[in-house]
Amino acid sequence: MPPTSPSSRTASTAASSPPDLPPPGGRCAIHQPNFFPRLTTLAKLFAADYWIVLDDVQFARRDYQHRARLAALDDPARRQWLTLPTHLPNGRSTAIRDAEIADPARAGRRIRHTLQHHYGASPHWPVLRAALDPVLDLIITNGRTAAVA
């Protein structure tokens, strides 16, 4: 079956504006949300014309959906996990989009403190902190792991 034209009329006369569809063609990337994505994920995003967030699949505790690896400034081979504490309301079958941050206010403070302790000595810390602030504020205001990731 040939692809439908995005400019074709909708079946309903109730539609007051054309659908917000991208032009045909291009490269599409599909990826699950990652808490502080790795450079390979960011490269995938940069190379794509369209980005789809796959958040309706099962949350995986041992994946990057709620955690990230931090490398030490003085020794990049020395790494530690930074974890966003997550509650799964439906147990193991919880979808990524339904995972909740456990105690968002405390989690936001702890992650902010850990990142500052880990990278505060870097000459780039002021720029990094300014970029991180909206993400860290989202931890407290939204409470959903997928929204932060």
TrEMBL record:
Residues 1-18 have a biased composition (Low complexity). Residues 1-26 are annotated as: Disordered. It holds the Pfam family WbqC. InterPro entries: WbqC. This is WbqC-like protein family protein. It comes from Streptomyces rimosus subsp. rimosus. The lineage of its organism: Bacteria, Bacillati, Actinomycetota, Actinomycetes, Kitasatosporales.
